[in-house]
Fold these 4 entries.
Entry 1:
Amino acid sequence: MSEYWDKQIETISREELEKMQLESLKEIVNFAYNNAAHYKHAFDVAKVSPNDINSLADLAKFPFVDKQTERETQGVGSLLGEMCAVPETDVVFVSASSGSTGVPTLSPFTKTDFDEWQDVESRLFYMAGMRNTDRYVHALNFTLFVGGPDVIGAQNLGALCIWAGTVPSDRLLFILKEFKPTIIWTTPSYAWYLGETAKKSGIDPAKDLSIRRIIVAGEAGGSIEATRTAIETLWNAQLFDFYGISDIFGACAGMCEAKDGLHIAEDHILVETVDLRTGNPIPDGEQGELILTTLRKHARPMIRFRTGDIGYVNRNKCSCGRTHTRIYITGRKDDMFIVSGVNIFPSDVEFVIRGLSGITGEYMIRVSEKNFTAQYSVDIEKQQGSSESYDELAARVSAALKTRIGVKPSKVTVLADGALPRATHKAKRLIDERKLNFNI
């Protein structure tokens, strides 16, 4: 069997790859300018035009877009807004962000966009060792989440696919026992939790289950050697990290057998790194913010999208023979932290705390780690005069956080009114007590 899903593309020379990228970049920038109101206006304001693209380096002349751009343009003129470059009748699928900090942002796909996205998924699955003889459990959320449809890439590869979704742990363990799948995709923290839960119920995941490859995404653990090794030992399985971004499509980068960074699909996405302070391009190998440009997605082209992910790139040929750039994510630009694959911002917690009665509205978030899993707790203050017990108040706040954010805090500590520090300017709401960085 071939070592590659698409050997011609995956092992193409850098010279040929960059030539192909330049042709695609010229086309997509021109398409975006002529079909998406936002890009025409933004390029005109920046005094740049598609004709200015004569090399890949010329992309640095063009303005950035970010999550705020999506929010501001969505719904303007149409549901999909001013960044959409095709009529809605050409759109066959939309995913959506969680919307935890505002209106959920939609990511539209034409049929060609969708089919090419799933071919990338097949490539990444194959790179992680999946073959048509495997049984695969897709244990990711299917509700608007961009990672849900990625199971189709496994089906297109020929694997027997089990669309498990986010079922309770006991149900998922039943599936693993009865159907004997060989590969599962989940988050690093859940892979650890599920293995530990199995052991507590008398199941040794390393001996009693058939999982031999674990794909993870959404948290840093898959790229942290200590965490990866612990999960691999627990399951007696190989672990492969994937990287995806809801604003573009599901997984767009993944580990090969070398486990040295994540190969990004450069025939579909152009990656830059820029200085965090100036926004200017920086050399390969230096740490900065990752900027992604879609080269083939037409429903909503993303020209110089600021991901907020901090890392560096390596464009040298990998020992696996693949030539596509490897990305290494080292952190996040903002205060976001990730628990069980869910992105959480301090503003999410504040939204809940400020809207509840019986508390002062002051709060402190503590992010910690336990058994290679990120968790968060919240300190709050009981309002003077409230007759509610401390335990009842903690339970009510915990339930409200779970409902709003989707992840229950490990603990809610109720303090007396005035116990938390006040700030006259910018309050510090987050204390990170972790030794490992889970914000990847």
Note: The radius of gyration is 23 Å.
Entry 2:
Amino acid sequence: MATPSDTSAPSGRGSTVRRIEQALTEDISAGALAAGERIDEVKLTERFGVSRTPVREALSRLVAQGILIPGEKRGVRVAEYTRAQLAQIFEAMHEIEAACARIAAQRLTLLARVEIEAAQADCMAAAEAGDRAAYLKANEQFHLTIYRATGNPYMAEIATEFRQRTGAARAKKFATNEDLLSSAHSHADLISLIFSEDSAAASDGMRAHMARSFKETLAAN
């Protein structure tokens, strides 16, 4: 059975495709690419120094994940959602993220604890510096460390895909330095609940965290 890390693409081209895919995903999560924005294939070939083949393969993979959607004249653009669609996606994210926090609390290892603490330190440093791009990247990594702490790569993959779909919409809620600091400080309570190894409390804490994120995302969009 294949695992989330398996790939059928040749190693050379496959690694290039994954590099482009990851870079675009990070750009969207960091707000560098806005919802609805058209992706320029030519600029991507210049940016990564490759032909259009790996670029198009990376774009196709992102379309399949729902991060990008088909646009006009065979082009693609960053996915954008109505308020109703965002509500539906966040409803699913509530359940998945809460489950990740619950399982992470049950299975917390020393390594997972250190990774979560390091990710939070990066969030605080970026927030205190007022570096929005760095904070958005660190914030994504913070949640990814919680997903990995479940010890279940399939659950982590599902949670990550939902998070990536909403990257452009969530990025809009971080408009000021106060927004960054408020978000970073909100992680502290969540971390305490996960580290307490009280799985029910960790789940409830993540639900509260995601409810706040949803309200702020709707207000920004």
Note: Residues 97 and 127 are 23 Å apart (CA to CA).
Entry 3:
Amino acid sequence: MSKLTRDNKDGIYSLMLTPFFEDRSIDYNTYEKYADWQVEQGVDHLFAVCGSSEMRELSLEERLKLATLTVKHKGNTTVVATANIEETKEENLEEIKKMEQTGVDGIVLTTKGMGDNDDALVEYIRELASSTSLPTFLYEFPGFRPHIMSGKAYGELTKDGLIWGIKDTTCKMEGGIQEKIDNMNDSTIIQANMPFLFDAYVAGARGVMATPTSCGGAFFQRFHEAFVAGDIETAKQRYNEIILLDNAINDGFCASAKELIRLQGVDTFNWYTRGSHHLDSARLRSLKSFHDWCVANGLMK
């Protein structure tokens, strides 16, 4: 099994969805099949307990169990997981200890609604990140607003190597992605935005944590490998394929992504979420058509 290092911290972090039964209890058996399927996509890393996992709708016990199962099935990937969802800082410190015990390779910390206060955010993140020996990444999670941190604050947290990377969710180049890249030091900038994915890589980003990875990690691995190898024309083609995937699941994510996973072979994966999503017959037919097109063009199985 792999270990997260400074040398392999770049690349594709596939987001892990949470399968539910109709009563919205977690289908852990299907989750284990899904984890195996994600590894088979050839991605570098798995991101358990993330926004796409519906982490704010999960109890701490559920989050810890999902992280444990992801580690069990990680194969040659590495696993990171969010570890500061509970309400108070004291609870977050305890949460980090419990997440460490699941065997994850790295910890992810949200900006926890402090994006408009550089000093408070840097102090909070420093205390939490210093409490663990595991590699630590940041996540501008929109579930805790204001969530966007400044490049200055990011630079303060990366200048001494404390923070290894960030899932940037600014969704813009100037004043967002570029500002993080300008302050990255020895960290990696991990993209969540698809329209600017190619531009972000040109500017210096070298990772992805994005909703379409949950059902199409292979799309991103192909893009990343082509770009890093210097095959820019192929990378552009792969980027265009990613945009098609992003548009296909955008309506009704993450239920739409779950249906694409079912169509790709994890046949017990229902589209149910703990939110208000609903896939009607027309939406299901549209996703089936997209999947068939991908299969015909060698993009999915």
Note: Residues 17 and 53 are 4 Å apart (CA to CA).
Entry 4:
Amino acid sequence: MNAPLVRSLEARYYTDPAIFAQEIAGLLSRTWQLAGHRAQIPNAGDYFAFEIAGQNLFCIRGQDDVIRCFYNVCQHRAHELVSGTGNTRVVVCPYHAWTYELTGGLRAAPNSKSVPGFDRSAICLTEARCEDFNGFLFVNLDPHTAPMDEWFPGVREELAEYVPNIDLLAPLEWVEIPENCNWKVSVENYSECYHCSLNHPTFAEGVVKPETYDIQPSDKGYVLRHTTECQNLENMTYPIDMSVEHAGEYRSWFLWPMVSFQCYPGNVLNTYHWRVRDVDHCTVYRGWYTEGGAESDVIRALAVQDRKTTVEEDIHLVESVYRGLKSRGYRPGPLVLDPGCGVNSEHSIERLQAWMKEAVDG
């Protein structure tokens, strides 16, 4: 007797503002999110500000060379402390000049000595969990969360194997892509290649061999692993050095809920990470990396090619899906779950949607 069909999630999981609010307060505040790269703050006092799950934060490198993440709010009367990027010897609030050490402790507050009982040592910026993951800075707003290696077992080592120079990399280019859809629609689209041959001819014919493409959910942790071979060398849209181990392979590690590392053929590292804006909008960031952030005509051309082809094609797909999810005529259909997995199977979507449902329903 055949097992019952597994159907896609109901539209409300994507379109309901109440579910989005629940995700902001829960899932997105308790999971590891990509903040940036350590190469962005190489010197003591360097910082950059960013937002995760509706919270303003900043990463800063201390005089002790430790990178810390703080909520971007003064402990006096809640003014934001920094914006953008910069370097500072101490963190000074623009409102009343309360001044903090790079370690977060309060250093000075004007006229506080005249206040009986004022204890400067008892006041400190609120710190968020931060981890350096092969040079990438991840933040989790849950102070009790498990380390990244428990969330994503084996990924740190696998990345270093496929990108042997990963510790020397720095961002060369960030590509920012606004999308008019719920973040989960975009993440799902990234996490299957059932649509690739039909919709991504440049990727499918000039980068990878779709017939070898497979996506396997991890038995442990929250990881989806994409694997495939590179196209025949005469069809590749850029040159690769096949003398390097794994150069002829493509790998991707999707880390739930919104980060993916991709190793393109030729050991080229690039990233996707998503940031939510509201229930109907998200932003995708594509990162491209070279040793020390050095200029590379090949990587620059790849970034342009990717933006003009795969990224642009995906924008139209995800925005159409999201409009469809708001249609009264939509009835969630069965997922295509091929027991042999492969490029035309949606096993990865089954796992993703289970994680999505668990985050909302428990």
Note: DSSP finds nine helices and 17 strands in the chain.
